[in-house]
Amino acid sequence: MLRAEGISLANRVSDLSIDLISSDAVHLLGPNGSGKSSLLNLLAGLIAPDKGNLWLDGRDLTHYAPAELASQRCLMEQSQQSVFALTVKESLNFFCAERAVPESLEQALNIADFMQRPLNQLSGGEQRRVQIARCLMQVWPAIEQGRALLLLDEPVQGLDFSHQHRLCALLNRLTQMGNMLVMSHHQLNLAERYASRIWLMHQGQLVADDVPEQVLTEPLLTQVFSCNVRIVTDTEQNRLIQTYL
Amino acid sequence: MFYRTRLLSLLFVILITLALFVLLRDLQLTDAVDRQILLHLRLPLVLCAILVGASLAASSALLQVMLRNPLADPGIIGITSGASLFAAIYLLMGGSLSAALLQYGLPLFSFIGALLSTLLIYLIARRLSLVSGSGVILAGIAISTLSGGVIAWLYFFTDAQSLRNLTFWLLGSLHQASLKLVLMATAPVCVLLLYLVVQGRALNWLYLGQRSAHLAGLDIRRFYPRMLLASAFLVGVAVSLAGSIAFVGLLVPHLLRNFFGYDNRFILPASALLGAILLLLVILVSDLFGGVAVPVSMLTATLGGPVFLYSVVKLAER
């Protein structure tokens, strides 16, 4: 379990308190610059808050040794470039103790075909899939034990919609094993379909923390994103969210 | 992994064979004069080549990953020039000092110069939040240029003998260190090299930047200064033993990555071994010129230049 109490960071996150419990699949939404990445960095222990405290499984996050934390939580950052022409296989081996790609991961991400290719020659979406695989494989033993904290910053960016759905479905299977997930993105329909909870951020503050039906409402989204939002229901009673100016 | 262990063993065998060959070539161990040559000329020369080559190549391999710039080499990021500046100050200001002071003072001063310039580069890198490899390279070029400028000023205020000493020293030579000095350097260099070459796993994480390494479990705040200090020490020793030697640091890791990939658990020890082998080869080539002391940098640059160009093109095609 992860708990944050009154955490603040410069002008990016202000006085935010949250609880994340086992099996939570939280989708983090909010406009550009609303503080989503900063919040993920804070939750990952990558940066310390100016104010407030964070606890992971009842222990102050700052008391974890980097290696201990790394075995349990992973953070996939938005951009990752290397000046060195590492191959996909090398980049996975270096970070994942030479583990083979687990089958469930391969089924969702399909990276086997470009294992020998240099990372920086892949398309944006392919690079993103490798990045997700590396991030999850780093904590794979903890994932299998259902005690991992998975933090993903815009993992679906650049992914075609087939892979977007496969990834979200995989992540939901992992959370059902007891793992905790927080992922940020801008796909309202993915959040509607796959999130167990949604955190909606605006100007560094958490303006909503609830199930999708409560957060994904026309007035709230219109207000936060300064964009028109219409929610329609299809013949199978699925809610579809449309946005327009 | 298995073939890499075999490859490391092979490099080690080549190194030992080459070292013994350079040591014992044309010598009769039954002859007293030959034994003196072996002990006071060949042994310091061979040890010096091994220590300097291994130190420069291994610390460059390390710096390239830490600064996230494949161009990083002690020469390019200004460590060597800092050492040269201090050596120049010593040679030119202390021209009247005795031979004994020259023998120990010069290495000491260049060592201090290497440490100080590394510290300066580290402070600049930290100011640039350690993310900008090119910022560090630019700062290194600035430090090199500044040192060059100051050395040029020093030329104005010096006598002919000191000038000759300095010019020769700046070109680099494996012949100038005494047995005593080389033996003094051997133990700390070996310990530090061993320490560096086992950091491969942590260094692999740094390929994708410091944040990734931190997320993967590396304590960056401790690791960084430790590694920089270790490489500054090694470069300091190398420069103080042999003056400034161009290109070994840039060439060796590039060549290895080109053919064997990026795993630092292999690249670091292999760089140390190949760096040492390269300088032993330089001794052999330089002997072809029949007793004329050919500046090492001249050879490393002319031999290394084409190989390096080939390696750069290959790497770009990878």
TrEMBL record, chain A:
Keywords: ATP-binding, Nucleotide-binding, Translocase, Transport
All residue ranges annotated as the ABC transporter domain in the record: 2-228
GO molecular function (one): ATP binding
InterPro entries in UniProt: AAA+_ATPase, ABC_transporter-like_ATP-bd, ABC_transporter-like_CS, P-loop_NTPase
Protein name per UniProt: Vitamin B12 import ATP-binding protein BtuD
Described function: Part of the ABC transporter complex HmuTUV involved in hemin import. Responsible for energy coupling to the transport system.
This protein's record includes keyword Repeat: no
Name of the encoding gene: btuD
Domain of life: Bacteria
Protein's organism: Lacimicrobium alkaliphilum
Gene3D superfamilies in the cross-refs: P-loop containing nucleotide triphosphate hydrolases
Automatic annotation (TrEMBL), chain B:
CDD domains: TM_ABC_iron-siderophores_like
SUPFAM superfamilies according to UniProt: ABC transporter involved in vitamin B12 uptake, BtuC
Bilayer disposition of the protein: Multi-pass membrane protein
UniProt-annotated location(s): Cell membrane
Keywords from the named record: Cell membrane, Membrane, Transmembrane, Transmembrane helix, Transport
Pfam families: FecCD (PF01032)
Primary subcellular site in the record, as a coarse category: membrane
InterPro entries from the UniProt entry: ABC_BtuC-like, ABC_transptr_permease_BtuC
Residue stretches spanning the membrane: 7-24, 44-63, 75-93, 105-124, 136-157, 177-198, 228-254, 266-285, 292-313
Domain of life: Bacteria
Family listed: Belongs to the binding-protein-dependent transport system permease family. FecCD subfamily.
Protein name stated in the entry: Vitamin B12 ABC transporter permease BtuC
Organism from which the protein derives: Lacimicrobium alkaliphilum
